[in-house]
Amino acid sequence: MEAVKQQIQAREEPVVPTSGSTRAAGQRGEIVIAGLGKVYESKKSRFAALSDIDLSIGSNEFVTVVGPSGCGKSTLLRIVAGLDEQTDGSVTLDGNEVIGPGAERGMVFQGYTLFPWLTVRENIEYGPKLQGISTLERRAISNYFLKVIKLESFAAAYPKQLSGGMKQRVAIARALANRPKVLLMDEPFGALDAQTKLDMQEMLLEVWEKEKTTVLFITHDIEEAIFLSQRIVVMGANPGRILKTFDVKLPAQRTPEVREMPAFLALRRELGQLLKH
Amino acid sequence: MNAPRRRKPHRFQIFKEIGGRPFAFTAGLSFVLMLALWAVLSYTKAVNPVFLPTPSQVMAEMTKQLSSGEYWNFIGISVFRVSAGFVLACIVGIPLGIFAGTFKYAEALVEPPMEFIRYMPAVAFIPLIMVWAGIGEWAKILLIFIGCFFQLVLMVADNTRRVSADLLQASFTLGAGRWKAIETVLIPAIQPQLMNTLRLILGWAWTYLVVAELVAANSGLGYAIMKAQRFLNTDQIFVGIIVIGLLGLISDRIFAFLNRRLFPWA
C-alpha cells in the first residue's frame, strides 16, 4: 500500500536532484554558429565539407538538420560537440566559445556507444558519477530516467542483452542524466526498423517535454525531421551549406495523427522537391 | 512419380557450428589417434625402444616420479620461475603497453625499439644473462622476462588501439577528460582482450622456462628432462614433457575460466 502510494507520487512529480547540474538556473543552451567552415586539405586536393554556415538555435528549441549524405551535417554536429575542429568561424554556447567536448553538450551517436562493461543503470549514472554526485543522488537520477525510458526491469542488464531500440533509449537517458544544456543527436534512429523508429520518435518527444533542453538532431529522414522538430534546416552538398530553413507549423503536441495533417504532407512534398536536386 | 530429390548438405560447411558434443568427440578422437600411433610404433618396436618408450612404460615412470617428493619440488620451482618472470613482465609491460597504445608520442618512443628487440631470439641472450645475473634464480627469471616482456608490450598496445573511438568520444561528451577516459573507458574496454594476450604470453613463458633450465640449473622440470637425456631415459623425458604440457593446460583453463567469470558483459 505504502509502496503503491510512493509510486503514484513519483509518477506525478518525478524528483530529480539538481545539485551538480551542468544546467544551472539562468543558463539557457543557446547555440550560435557563425561563418562556420571546414576544409579538408591535402597536397593534391581541397574539399569543403562545410562552407559559411550561420545558424542560431534558441533555448529549448528542437532543430533538425536534413540533407543528402556528404552534405556535412554530421561534421557540423561533431564540431558543435567539440569532437571535430572547424577551419573557419565559431560556435558559441550561451556566449562561450566551444573548444572541445564537454558535459554541457550531451551526444547520442548513430552507432551503439553504450559502455558494454557497465549495466544499463551504471551507463546512465556514468556522467553524474564523473561530476562527483553522491551514490544516493545518482541512484535517484538513474531511477528517474529508467522510468522515463520504460526500462526499469533492465536496470541490471548489460548492453549486449538489449535490442537496438533499447540501446538507443539508454543512450538518450545516459546523455540526459548529465543534464546537458544541449542534446546533440547524430541519426540516432538510423539503424532501427521502421516501427521501432516511430516509437522512439514519440518517446524522444515525451522526454524532451519533460526535460526541456535544446536539441540539435541530424537525420536524412524527412518525415522524422517534420514530426520531431520546430525548425528544419536543409543542407546541400559540395560545398556543405545551408539551402533553406523551414518553421514547422504543426501543433506543439505531436501525436501520430500529425503525420496525416495537410501541413505535414505539404512540408514533406516541399522538402522532398528541395532534396531531389 | 518422381519425388523431389533432396540432397543432404555436406557435413563439412565452412565456418558452420557443429555443436558441443560432436566437437568434444572429435577433439577426444584426435588424442586417441595420437596415442594409437604412438602405441603402434612403440609396441611393435618399429622404432628402437631406446628412442621411443611405450605408453605403459611412460605411465609407470610417471607414477613413480609423481610419488617422489623430489619431482614435486621440481614442479614447484618451475612453477615459481614461470610465475615470477611472467608476473614481472606483466607489472612493467601492461602499463607500458597501455601507454604506448594510448598516446602517439609514447608509441613512437616505445614501439620501434621493441619491434627491433622482439626479433632478437631470447635464447641468444643466455650468455649475456649469465654474465649479468650469474646462474642463480634471477638468471632464469630474467630469461623468461625477456622472452615475454617485449611481445607483451606490443600486444597490449595493440589491444589498446583497438578500443572503439566512439566509446572514447561518448565519454568525452559525458564530461570525461583524458585521464578519466583512460581510467573509465580504455582500461575496462581492453580487459577481456588483455586476458587472451596474457594467456598466449604465459604459454611462451613455459617455453623459455625449459630453455633456461636446460642450460643452467640443478632443479626444475627442464633440468629433469636434461638429466634424463644424459642417461638416455627417454621415458623420463616423456614424463617431463607431458607434465609441462599439463601444467600449461591447467593455467590456460584457469585463464579461460577467469575470463568468463570476470567479464560477463563481453
From TrEMBL, chain A:
Cross-referenced Gene3D superfamilies: P-loop containing nucleotide triphosphate hydrolases (3.40.50.300)
Keywords noted in UniProt: ATP-binding, Nucleotide-binding, Transport
Alphabetized InterPro entries for the sequence: AAA+_ATPase, ABC_transporter-like_ATP-bd, ABC_transporter-like_CS, ABC_transporter_ATP-bind, P-loop_NTPase
GO molecular function, one term: ATP hydrolysis activity
Top-level division of the source organism's lineage: Bacteria
Residues in ABC transporter domain copies: 31-262
Span list, region Disordered: 1-22
Pfam family, one: ABC_tran
Protein name: ATP-binding cassette domain-containing protein
Species for this entry: Paenibacillus sacheonensis
TrEMBL record, chain B:
CDD domains in alphabetical order: TM_PBP2 (cd06261)
Keyword line: Cell membrane, Membrane, Transmembrane, Transmembrane helix, Transport
Listed Pfam families: BPD_transp_1
GO CC, one annotated term: plasma membrane
PROSITE patterns reported in the protein's UniProt record: ABC_TM1
Cell location: Cell membrane
Transmembrane segments: 21-41, 71-96, 116-135, 141-157, 201-225, 237-258
InterPro entries per UniProt: MetI-like, MetI-like_sf
Membrane-topology annotation of the record: Multi-pass membrane protein
Gene Ontology biological process terms, A to Z: alkanesulfonate transmembrane transport
Domain ABC transmembrane type-1: residue ranges: 75-255
Family listed: Belongs to the binding-protein-dependent transport system permease family.
Protein name: ABC transporter permease subunit
